[in-house]
Design a protein that fits this description.
Blueprint lengths: L9 H5 L12 E8 L5 E7 L7 E2 H9 L4 H8 L4 E4 L3 E5 L8 E3 L6 E4 L5 E3 L7 E7 L2 E7 L3 E6 L4 E4 L5 E5 L2 E5 L2 E5 L9 E7 H6 L2 H4 L6 H20 L8 E2 L15 H9 L3 E5 L2 E2 L4 E2 L31 E7 H7 L5 E10 L9 E10 L2 E8 H8 L6 E3 L1
Parallel strand pairs: 3-20, 5-17
Antiparallel strand pairs: 1-22, 2-21, 2-25, 4-18, 5-16, 6-9, 6-13, 7-8, 7-12, 9-10, 10-11, 12-15, 13-14, 15-16, 18-19, 22-23, 23-24
Helix pairs in contact: 2-6, 3-6, 6-7
Length: about 400
Amino acid sequence: MPRALPALLLGAVLGVVPALPGPALAEAVDQTHPMPGTGDVTIRGHGYGHGHGMSQYGAEGAARQGKTWREILGFYYPGTAWGTKGGRVRVLISADTTRDVIVAPRSGLRVRDTGDGKDYTLPRNGASRWRLAVSGTRSVVDFKTDRWRRWKTLTGDGAFHAGGDPVTLFFAGTSRQYRGFLKASSPSKGSADRDTVNSTRIDSYLKGVVPLEMPASWKPNAVRAQAVAARTYAAYEMQHPRAAHYQICDTASCQVYGGYTAEHALSNDAVDATARVILTSKGAPAFTQFGSSSGGWTSANRFAYLPAKADPYDDWAGNPVHDWSVRVGVARIERAWPGVGNLRSVKVTERDGNGQWKGRVWQLRLIGTRSGKPTSINVSGDTFRATLGLRSTWFTFA
């Protein structure tokens, strides 16, 4: 996820890669931390992200120790088997929020009518833009010279493509190139709405994912492990689609995807070197979550191949978030949970039981006074982390 570490390790940083319910492994603790009346409190922690599956910094650390990409994946996803996956994936281009799909003219540009399957070559007629738009509920093709003009009405949805060459899409004040088809896709039959969906081969999709999930310049075996984890995650989403007209999104809620524009020669090599390879469990694609840094312990999730285990590879000199600390104003905590009044202490009541301080925080209690009366608010570790922007739920108070 990063180009500049760790800020772009998005899936891990934001903790928004979908997490299935974890096993009930909470360990009760009684850790009370007095809070100062004013000023700041220091919060120390380990890791960056949810901790499930592969640590990206850990993958690089393992590669630096000579581990192969297969060994790295075997460590982080124990019990999985090797499989293959091809075909096409449908990706929602989430930043294109209009009903139109607007592209630049280029040689070989065509439009496909998904209603009758016919392909039409678009003429070189001096147009500066081509557009898939909606007239009533019908899809239409327009071109722009001095103004927009109608070229054709389609029987179904429309999709621009250039025979496998990249097509430039304009959206949200910017542009980006994509391989495959750029479709103005109906979310339901007869709808006047359209979403921009990129349909492309899975390994072409991966080439727009991997350099945004991990620096392409990292050790080849780390980048190859990332390619397989990302391909497997996409394969899982293809079997559990987000919507009827697309399977996966292009943000950190799924995997960050930047199309052809984001590609890098080194990460393309990693995708090619691991072509079609995925991890499977019980014959189906595994749910290969990954994140920036485990902090030294991975975190268990629902599946047996996502266990909590010590991670010896995460702690190396180039990982700035294996250990971290921040100062947070007590007043900021009080503003986030005004019901607590004057915060007197924070009591951690449940952790996952793994590593220093008994591991990641599951539950804590904010204790204070308000109008002379005692207050107490229970908060999950995830909520506390998200509200204060902490790197992970593996933290304590100094």
